[in-house]
Amino acid sequence: MTKRTSAKYKIDRRMGENIWGRPKSPVNKREYGPGQHGQRRKAKISDFGLQLRAKQKLKGYYGDLTEKQFRRIYAEAERLKGDTGENLIGLLERRLDAVVYRAKFVVTMFAARQFVNHGHVTVNGQRVNIPSYRVKEGDVIEVRDRSKQMTVLLEAVQLAERDVPDYIEADHSKMKATFVRQPGLSDVPYPVMMEPNLVIEFYAQN
């Protein structure tokens, strides 16, 4: 098992939830956490614990971002007009790796980061290999011609476990997607409940 795959499953086990909705997630069989103490009775979680868990779950969902990256996105969400939680979700969904994942060009968020890193994607015709690159409304994201027959792409397109959300228009015959608009929390097809309000509370108090 690769380090990435191991990390992905460890997040699921730690949260006790199948946060990407994958059929192979270990929590589909075992709901307890990883490690030798994982089967102990669960203690009541404090408010701080709930906030920390909400932050770890959201941060983990987007490919296990570093704390520095995630805090920077939160700080920007806080500066923008409107609801900070909605802004946070919108900024996360505008990451190039998130758009590649949502467009079903790849199977997992981890694969999306690697796919962008390896230079398989263009934005408005220009090659971009930075997963955190922020797309804008109307931007066209396309898989480069030399990469369009990759097995991982063909497998992802056939996946029945998730659909392309309506804030992205995807044409899988051309391996091209358009970012239509920035979504809010209710628009994003998370398989589990995300609680950005608790993330905001966590950073406000810590």
TrEMBL record:
Keywords: Ribonucleoprotein, Ribosomal protein, RNA-binding, rRNA-binding. Residues 19-40 are annotated as: Disordered. Pfam families: Ribosomal_S4, S4. Residues 3-93 form the Small ribosomal subunit protein uS4 N-terminal domain. One of its GO terms (cellular component) is small ribosomal subunit. The keyword Nucleotide-binding does not apply. InterPro entries: Ribosomal_uS4, Ribosomal_uS4_bac-type, Ribosomal_uS4_CS, Ribosomal_uS4_N, S4_RNA-bd, S4_RNA-bd_sf. Residues 94-158 form the RNA-binding S4 domain. One of its GO terms (molecular function) is rRNA binding. PROSITE patterns: RIBOSOMAL_S4 (PS00632), S4 (PS50889). HAMAP family: Ribosomal_uS4_B. Part of the 30S ribosomal subunit. Contacts protein S5. The interaction surface between S4 and S5 is involved in control of translational fidelity. Belongs to the universal ribosomal protein uS4 family. With S5 and S12 plays an important role in translational accuracy. This is Small ribosomal subunit protein uS4. It comes from Roseovarius mucosus DSM 17069.
